[in-house]
Amino acid sequence: MKAWTAPSMPTVNVDTPDAPGRLLVHDTATDRLVQVGPAAGTARMYVCGITPYDATHIGHANTYVAFDLLLRTWCDLGLAVEYAQNVTDVDDPLLERALATGKDWEQLAAEQTELFRTDMEALRVVPPNHYIGAVECVPCVSELVHSMHDTGLSYQIDDPKHPDWYFTSSAVPTFGIVSNLDRDTMLTRFAAMGGDPERVGKKDALDSLLWQMARPDEPAWDSPLGRGRPGWHIECTAIALKYLGPAFDVQGGGSDLVFPHHEMSAAQGVAASGDAFAQTYVHSGMVALDGKKMSKSLGNLELVSRLRAAGTESAAIRLALLAHHYRDDWEWTTDGLRRAEERLDLWRRATRLDAAQPVVDVVTRLRAAMRNDLDAPTALGEIDAWAAASIDVDGDDTDAPAQIKATVDALLGISLG
Ligand code: ZN
After folding, report:
1. Residue 394, domain extent
2. 392-403: per-residue pLDDT in tens?
3. Which of 21, 62, 225, 408 has an alpha carbon within 20 to 30 A of 306's alpha carbon?
4. Which stretches of the chain drop beneath a pLDDT of 70?
5. 111-148 confidence digits (pLDDT tens)
6. How far does the centroid of ligand 1 lie from the alpha carbon of residue 235, in Å?
């Protein structure tokens, strides 16, 4: 499906020989900082997309802005980026919401996907090259599951009413490498997060649903597996393998996706391709509101669209997100948003003046911060210091404001106008 319009991204024409030449990020699987992306050429990233049944909240925005920083840092290092993201436009929560509100599920998905596009565009998030809906990838999922059947990696459970297809998790010796959880914890989380460890007929309690056979009054598609619809984990496996190939550089998403979603997707990817699924697993923190993780199910949401409709500048929303390290869990507050608005104002005033501080030092430190696990809070501090110094001392560097603007725009996605 179509993504959204890409923001302009200037090139930073400042030579910084002292900045690190590679990007390090935290890998969930090994709990270490690792180099991500090749030294030259094309980096490949997959970030799990939304289930479009409700508007984009700040928690979503935080995730997609985090991976936007990763993409921008790769681009600043001179790499090309191949980026894929899915839209889970047919799934239980979407169908339940459509039923509860009397809406057509396809219409609900289309409306909410469009709102997401609008929010991402306003936040100046670079769109994926491949923006793929589950519905449009039904053939690629069913063909993948069917091919896995020949080698015993997928099977149909013995349930005459609903003979659904499942993944043979025991076929993957590396199952568990993403989350590093013990089996008991996996079973508890699987049950709590939409899995079905108790379902009768499975070979193993941790086997996950690949293809759900048609249910009355639910959408379904004909396939070699029988009429039905894709499971969630295999949707991401199939889309990532089709558009990026195996062993791509980064699999990303919010930390609530580590298990079961990323564990299952990775195991299925390893099983299907015989290669690693992703080389690195990167996760962004959760954003709370009123003391609890912001979530659709709890209903404690701050929506990007609501803030924008109330007149909040998108750049201020983005800057409020960047004030927190992407891996941290934090709480959204109106105070945080106000501080971001003040910061934006300071930066804009400073870039209207000629600077006294040498720009190469600022850009070097900013690049170093971003290349060290996307440390946006430190990067923001560097621009704060430069802006404060520029306002205090009359300078004569007339090129500096344009160079700082380009750096802030290219690396942080903030346009200072
Ligand atoms: Zn996913």
Report:
1. 292-412
2. 877 777 788 899
3. 408
4. 356
5. 999 999 999 999 999 999 999 999 999 999 999 999 99
6. 7
**DSSP category for residue 178:** T
Number of domains in the chain: 2
Buried b (16+ CB within 10 A) or exposed e, 272-305: bbeeebbbbbbbbbbbbbeeebbbbeeebbbbbe
Output the CA 261–ligand 1 centroid distance in Å.
6
How far away, in angstroms, is 73 Cα from ligand 1 center?
23
Question: Is 403 found in the same domain as 339?
Answer: yes
Structure tokens at 250: 């980064």
Question: Cα(300) to centroid of ligand 1, in Å?
Answer: 23
pTM, to two decimals: 0.97
Neighbours of ion ligand 1 (CB under 5 A): 48, 236
Q: Are 175 and 230 found together in one domain?
A: yes
Answer yes or no: do 266 and 306 share one domain.
no
Phi/psi of residue 84, each to 5°? -120, 145
- Domain membership of residue 6 (yes or no) is no
Looking at 284, 318, 347, which one is the last position of a domain?
284
